[in-house]
Amino acid sequence: MSDLDRYLQAATRDNTRRSYRAAIEHFEVTWGGFLPATGDSVARYLVAHAGVLSINTLKLRLSALAQWHNSQGFADPTKAPVVRKVFKGIRALHPAQEKQAEPLQLQHLEQVIDGLEQEKQVAMAEDDRPALLRAKRDIALILLGFWRGFRSDELCRLQIEHVQVSAGTGITLYLPRSKSDRENLGKTYQTPALQRLCPVQAYIDWVSEAALVRGPVFRGIDRWGNLSEEGLHANSVIPLLRQALSRAGIAAEQYTSHSLRRGFASWAHQSGWDLKSLMSYVGWKDMKSAMRYIEVNPFQGMARLGEKTRTV
Predict the structure, then answer these.
(1) How many domains does the chain have?
(2) What are the residues facing 86 on neighbouring strands?
(3) What does the H/E/C string look like for 114-141?
(4) What is the value of pTM for the model shown?
(5) 189, β-bridge pairs
(6) 145 and 235 inside one domain
C-alpha cells in the first residue's frame, strides 16, 4: 500500500469503511445494479427498498454510492434531481419514528452495580479469578461509560497510557480520535471522584486487579482468567451491559450501549445542568445532537402548571 493509499484509508473510519463496502455489495450483488450507476438506476434502487429499509439505512446507501463514484472519478448519481425527489417522497410516505435506546436511570445504575459488587464478593470468597476480573471490569466500564457519557467505541479505544488517575480526586482520559472529533485532533476528558458509584475508584480497582500497565483498558477475559491483548469490540458492549442488567433483575431488551450516554444526559438535565454545560462536558457540537439524548418527561411542565393552579 502506498503512502497516498494509507492516508486516504486513514481519513475514513473502519466502521464507515465496512458499512460502505456492505452497501456497495448490496447495490451490485444483492440488487443487481451496475457501477458506475446512473441517477435513474439509483432512484429505482431506492424505490425497490422503500418501506423495507429504514430512512437512515437508505441514507447510508446513498452516501456509500456517492463516495464510491467520487473516489473513482465518476459523476455522483445520488445528486441527480430524480434521486433527491424520490428520496423526499419516500420520507413522506414512509415516516418512521426514530428508535432510541432506553436511558439507564440512576436507580438502575445503582441496581446493576450492586449486583456486580455481589458477584465480586462471591468470586473473592470462592477464589474465582475469572469471575472476579469480569465483575471488576464490568463495574469500571459501566460507571465510566455512564458518568463520562462515553460511546461504546470510545470506551473500547481507551488506552492505559492515555489515562491519568488520582484516587479520591479524579480521572483524566485522552482519546486521540472519536466520532465527534472529525479532524482527529484528539480530546481530553475529565471526571471527578464520587462518594458512591465512583468511576475513578472502579477504574483503579480494575486496572490493579488485572495488573494492566499499557494497552487497551477494557479487554476480553477467557474462561481461565487470561486477558486478551486486544481491546473489547464496540459491538460487545451491548451484550455485556444487557447480561449484567438481566442478572440484576432488570428487563434489558431496550438497553444498548447508548443507554449509558442517554442515562447520564437525562440525569444531568434533571439535576439542573444547563444545556451549554452538558454539551461541553459530553462533547456535543450542536444542540440537536444533545436534545436527542435528553429524556424529557412530557408531563413535567403540566404537573408544575397544576401545582401553580392549586395554589392560586
Answers:
(1) 2
(2) none
(3) HHHHHHHHHHHHCCCHHHHHHHHHHHHH
(4) 0.70
(5) 173
(6) yes
Tens digit of each residue's pLDDT, the chain (312 residues): 565 555 445 545 566 788 899 999 999 999 999 999 999 999 999 999 998 888 888 999 999 999 999 999 999 999 999 999 999 999 888 876 556 678 899 999 999 999 999 999 999 999 999 999 999 999 999 999 999 999 899 999 999 999 999 999 999 999 987 666 556 678 899 999 999 999 999 999 999 999 999 999 999 999 999 999 999 998 899 999 999 999 999 998 889 888 999 999 989 988 899 888 888 888 877 777 677 667 554 334 333 334 433 444
CATH number where 136 lies:
1.10.443.10
Q: Is 217 helix (H, G, I), strand (E, B) or coil?
A: coil
| Length of the chain as a residue count | 312
Cell numbers 485532533: residue: 185
For residue 302, is it within any domain? no
